[in-house]
Input
Amino acid sequence: MKEPNDVILRTVTKVAVVIILTFAINLFISGHHQPGGGFIGGLAFVAAIVLLFLVYGIEKVRKNIPVDFKIVAGIGVLIAVFTGVGGMISGKPFLYQVFGHVNLPIFGETEMATAVLFDVGVALAVIGTSMTIIMSIGDDR
Amino acid sequence: MNNLVVLPIVVPVIVGMVMVIFRNILWFHRLLSLLTTAFIGIVAVCLLDQIKLTGVQVLYLGGWKAPFGITLAADMFAVLLVLVTAIVTFCCFCYAFSSLGIERERHYFYPLTLFLLAGVNGSFLTGDIFNLFVCFEVMLVASYVLISLGGTKIQLRESVKYILINMITSSLFLVAIAYLYAMLGTLNLAHLSVRVAAVGQDGLLTAVAFLFLIVFSIKAGLFLFFWLPDSYSAPPTAIAAIFASLLTKVGVYAIIRLFSLVFYHDLSITHLFIGVLAAVSMVLGAMGAVAYWDLKKILTYNVVVGVGFILAGFASFSLVGMRGTVYYLIHDMLVKALLFLLGGTIIHVAGTAKLKETSGLIRLHPKLGWMFFIAALSLSGIPPLSGFIGKIFVTEGTFQSEYFWLGGIGLLTSLMVLYSVMKIFMNVFWGPALTEETEKVSTEGLLLPMGILTALTIALGLGAEVIHEYVDLAAAGLLDPQGYIDAVLGGKL
Output
């Protein structure tokens, strides 16, 4: 039941969603050494989409993000598990992680770790699961 | 380090997720689910051989050594159960193909069952009590969906009760773990065992042990089984068979693991109490099974009797009794799955679960009848079927530990069990056929999985010599946890 007169809400949302999404990515990246990570980053990401739901209605958002979130969750879990399996293939225990330092053009000396891949999986699983829950609750009359 | 240990947990998760992604290709689901369970069975057989040769197999996840990281430890007992779990799930999948119905299959039956399998295998293989909690939850969350899958009225009613009971139990479980961690400062089972042995099992630790016993008793249906008969008769046959065969057994496994590895210093209190609970649940379960005239109710009460009997052997805490426990646990998983599948088929064929409204089915369904007869004899422990050897060892063990009352109750309730299943056999299969014209309900595709299980219960009885060596190792490993501790902690600490 959208009120016809929610111009302020819409305008704020347009800005706020960008900020929330940026913050979600920031949380995700800082998770390797500071508080944060895939789980909380994924939840913040979902918060942005839920805000869009509230303001623009579920149908419109669904049209613009044509993704089946159950599949997102599935892919997320698969990525996370396969980073664990990667360790097994190289003769190390399941879930074994490695990291190294790479010189990237803009960022300079950067630490790269396979744990990040695991976190990507976690983030996708969290996004997929919570979106599925929210959409199936929000859809029903 | 042995990466094989993690495969029974990880493979079902991977396959289940692939199924979620490719949701609508049903033949693909069926094929993959069979392949996965077969694969886990093969892995378990490989592990059995490795354990026989080199002792307990341990895997430190991510290379973080115990007691700091998460450890998976596969001893003989756990891997035997993983193997039986794989066999039972394989048969239940086969049964589901032609009984469950497209709608339920389409709504993630196979992925959910695989997640349940991952949780069950995880509970068996973990060497860390918090991880045990997590695997319990994985298993339970999958079972919540499976019990309400299809959404009939009775299923929804029972699932609410089932979820509530399990939520409360799980929170108690968490509280118990917190107490344990506060007292001992570790969660690794082997490390817990070392520390309990070092500080001695005083009153406070025994109290925590009892809290764990309450938690697992509710999950296993040991004495606190008030929720069990209704919940297990609600879902469709294939799912009910998986529940009856696997879920309570995970609770039983947790009791056995915890009270043989960690809390084994005060036998006259904890284990005697387990024995009393086992006796009471045997008696109450047998009374329920004898009293009811409803097929599903009789079978679910028999689950309770089985749990009691398994733990009667464990309570004796002697080598013979332990051997009987392992043997009977394996037998019980197979035969409970078989009986539930048979019971579901009978209901499907006769159209009712009420014994007094059916008669003379043996004329139309001779194979079904004889399979039920064999399963019934095996359940009550008639030689040469698989129940016999377990029963004789358990009884011998209780007598050895001078729990004569416990062994006596076990034998007495075996008679009552025999009566309850023979009641089913005589009422359903004997007598004149009710319908004159032979409009036979098809059992096509249902007989094969039950045939496999029937063959296994016969083979397990006749060929007990083959697995005797493994069962012996498992029982010895339970009685003397030092091998497990050394393998996990690597001789340090």
